[in-house]
């Protein structure tokens, strides 16, 4: 029996496969690697990245992975990890391959410098 998909999530940082918080997505279905091209900038907080809304019209490619979440407890665990809704907000996006999913974006643009920007759009730390 297949579980109903409750949320399709695009992850771009520590929730990706092989990273330290991926265990939170333990029973979720990995769909595929994908990319979004959107008015977001990826910045580094040192141990994790964040997407911030780019109010200057710059569209950047962000590399990540898509997961299907079928368990309410996993969704709650992700929300807790992301500090939702106070630290991160959820936005609906369409990936470059056409998949509609949610992504977590920083609630407020924090003060960051050009040195904090992850130009490649791919979190590898």
Could you walk me through the main structural features you see in this protein, from its secondary elements to its overall organization?
By secondary structure, this protein is mainly beta. It has a single domain (7-109), classed as Hypothetical upf0131 protein ytfp (Roll). Helices cover 8% and strands 39% of the residues. It is built from one helix and seven strands. The chain has one helix at 72-81; strands spanning 7-11, 29-38, 40-44, 49-53, 60-69, 88-94, 100-106. A hairpin with a 5-residue loop joins strand 6 (88-94) and strand 7. The longest helix is centred in the middle third of the chain and has 10 residues, at 72-81. The mean pLDDT is 92.
Offer a concise description of the structure.
By secondary structure, this protein is mainly beta.
The secondary-structure element order is EEEEEHEE
CATH class: Alpha Beta
Predict the CATH topology. Hypothetical upf0131 protein ytfp
> What is the averaged pLDDT score?
92
The biggest beta sheet reads: 3 strands, antiparallel
Number of domains: 1
The name of the CATH architecture is: Roll
Structural class: mainly beta
CATH homologous superfamily classification: Gamma-glutamyl cyclotransferase-like
* Residue share in helix: under 10%
Work out the strand percent.
35-45%
Overall spatial form: globular
The spatial strand order of the largest sheet comes to 1-5-2
How many whole angstroms does the radius of gyration measure? 14 Å
Distance between the termini: 37 Å
Count of DSSP H/I helices: 1
Number of strands: 7
- List unreliable stretches of 5+ residues: none
């Amino acid at each position: 029996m297949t579980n109903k998909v409750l949320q399709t999530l695009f992850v771009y940082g520590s929730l990706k496969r092989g990273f330290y918080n991926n265990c939170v997505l333990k029973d979720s279905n990995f769909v595929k690697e994908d990319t979004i091209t959107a008015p977001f900038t990826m910045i580094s907080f040192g141990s994790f990245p964040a997407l911030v809304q780019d109010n200057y019209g710059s569209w950047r490619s962000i590399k990540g992975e898509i997961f299907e979440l079928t368990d309410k407890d996993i969704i709650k665990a992700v929300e807790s990890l992301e500090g939702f809704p106070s630290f991160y907000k959820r936005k609906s996006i369409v990936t470059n391959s056409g998949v509609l999913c949610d992504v977590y974006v920083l609630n407020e643009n924090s003060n960051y410098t050009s040195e904090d920007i992850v130009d490649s759009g791919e979190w590898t730390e």
